[in-house]
Amino acid sequence: MTRTVISQTDLAAKASEVVERVRHGEIAVVETSGEEQVVLLDAADFRLLQALAACATEPPEPTEDISHDALVLRRYLNTEINLGKAAEELGLSRLELQDRFLRLEFLSASDPPRWRKHSARSLLSRSVPEPARFK
Prior knowledge:
By secondary structure, this protein is α/β, with parallel strands linked by helices. Helix content is 47%, strand content 14%. It folds into two domains: 3-41, YefM-like fold (3-Layer(aba) Sandwich), CATH 3.40.1620; 43-124, no CATH class. It has helices at 8-13, 15-23, 43-57, 68-77, 83-90, 94-103, 120-124; strands at 3-7, 27-32, 35-40, 132-133. The longest helix is centred in the middle third of the chain and has 15 residues, at 43-57.
C-alpha cells in the first residue's frame, strides 16, 4: 500500500492529481506542522477497511447493525463463500477485489488463501509502513 504524506498547501495546489492517485490505490495523509490531520483513500478501500473492523469488533453472530459489506467479508473469512462470490456481492470484479486485498495487505500474493487463517483482529494489528513524501 503506497502511503504518501502531503501538506495542506500541496493538497490545495494539486487536488486533482492527489484525488486521481488516491483513486488508483494510493493513500494520502494530509499533515499540518508535521501532525496528521486527514487521510484520503479510495471509497471501496474505505468500505473494505470498515467491514474488516466490523468483523473484528462485532460478535460472531450477525446483528442488525452490521453492514452488508461486513457480512460478506465475514462469510469470506469463514470460507463460506469464495473470492468470486464475495466480489460479486460487493459489486466488484474478482480481480479488483483480489487487487484491493493485496494492496491493503489482507492477503499475500504468494499464498492468497493463507490470510484467511488470520483473524480480523490480527489483520488490524499489523503495523503501518512509513509514508513516502508527496512529490
